[in-house]
Design goal:
With about 220 residues, this protein is mainly beta. The protein has two helices and ten strands; from the N terminus they run αβαβββββββββ. It has one domain: Beta Barrel (Porin), CATH 2.40.160.20.
Length: about 220
């Protein structure tokens, strides 16, 4: 009998502490930046040598994310949350007669699963959205622009360590994937459409993989 009374008292104490604990903030806003790598086909660039393409694959990326967690208490372990992500990336290289300056901007709604602990969070998210692609290149001193605006999808995994209830440091691995079979070119006052499969490097799937570091704000 004493054992049951003890367990009942312990349960009531835990329930009382949980009820007194303030809920975790309802929303999370984060910003990150870090290195990024262009994977897959490189379509519409000015130089197709292996050395040039390998150097062009290394770039930088940045992102901003928002997730709505709702009413979440400290003893909750998992939380499914809707959100929105934006990621930008830049890849650049220069050759004797030409240069490439690739810029990608991706925005998409997200669905994330958070594993929440008192001083750290882990998350896994996925979404599908729109990617704006532009290569502001130069060929023989004249401006050349390549555009490919396509649907894309992403998969992200992240972790956060809370410095305070309203702020934490975080890291994220983000992968954005898309594909294209054509692109538009504007060069020397003219504009035309190119079918990528007709090129020597072919068309198809390409992506950018980014390792990002930054801050989270909880409010």
């Amino acid at each position: 009998m004493k054992k049951y009374v003890f367990l009942l008292g312990l349960w009531m104490q835990v329930a009382s502490v949980a009820a007194q604990e303030p809920p975790v903030r309802k929303s999370v806003l984060s910003v990150h930046a870090g290195p990024s790598w262009y994977l897959g086909k490189m379509i519409g660039i000015t130089n197709h040598s292996d050395a040039y393409r390998n150097a062009l694959r290394n770039g930088i990326a940045w992102d901003a994310d928002y997730y709505f967690l709702g009413d979440t208490h400290p003893f909750d372990s998992f939380k499914l949350a809707p959100g929105l992500t934006y990621q930008g990336g830049r890849y650049a290289n220069t050759h004797d007669e030409s240069s490439d300056n690739i810029q990608m901007h991706y925005i998409a709604p997200q669905l994330a699963l958070f594993m929440m602990k008192r001083n750290h969070h882990l998350s896994l998210s996925a979404g599908a959205g729109y990617q704006h692609y532009k290569d502001k290149s130069v060929v023989y001193g004249k401006t050349r622009e390549v555009s490919m605006n396509k649907l894309a999808c992403n998969l992200s995994a992240g972790g956060e360590y809370l410095l305070a209830p309203c702020m934490g440091v975080s890291a994220r691995l983000n992968w954005v994937v898309t594909s294209s079979d054509s692109y538009s070119v504007r060069y020397h006052g003219q504009k035309w459409q190119v079918n990528a499969p007709e090129l020597s490097d072919g068309g198809g799937c390409f992506s950018h993989l980014s390792l990002l570091f930054g801050m989270n704000l909880h409010f």
